[in-house]
Design a protein that fits this description.
Helix 1 links the parallel strand 2 (about 10-15) and strand 3 (about 45). The chain has three helices and six strands; from the N terminus they run E-E-H-E-H-E-H-E-E. With about 110 residues, the protein is α/β, with parallel strands linked by helices.
């Protein structure tokens, strides 16, 4: 996983670089919570470009980050969602609360 932060627009982007299962979901959850508390972003963008598999632990991790961002008054978005992962989101109803966007942000720096 990798993060970028756009300080001008206060956008934190989480780039997931592996499949999301029980083990990786815990890692992603802990690190993302740390970065959210560190930067207090207005938006969290979760980039799924490199994710081809996700189990229920991944769904829980995503909903948890959505709730965390909501608690701080921020928004959560997803992008680069594969067809298979998108089907999971459709079946679970996640797309009703977390939209999928296209594009990225300017002036990002890796952290």
């Amino acid at each position: 996983m990798k993060f970028t932060y756009d300080s001008q627009f206060k956008i934190l982007t989480l780039i997931i670089t592996e499949e999301i299962d029980h083990y990786t979901a815990d890692k992603i959850r802990n690190r993302t919570d740390f970065e959210i508390q560190k930067y207090m972003p207005k938006e969290l963008i979760i980039d799924f470009a490199n994710v081809s598999f996700m189990d229920s632990a991944g769904i829980g991790m995503i909903i948890g980050r959505y709730k965390t961002m909501n608690m701080f008054g921020g928004k959560t978005y997803m992008k680069n969602v594969s067809r298979g992962v998108r089907k999971i989101f459709e079946m679970t109803g996640i797309l009703k609360i977390i939209p999928i966007i296209e594009g990225g942000t300017k002036n990002e720096k890796c952290i």
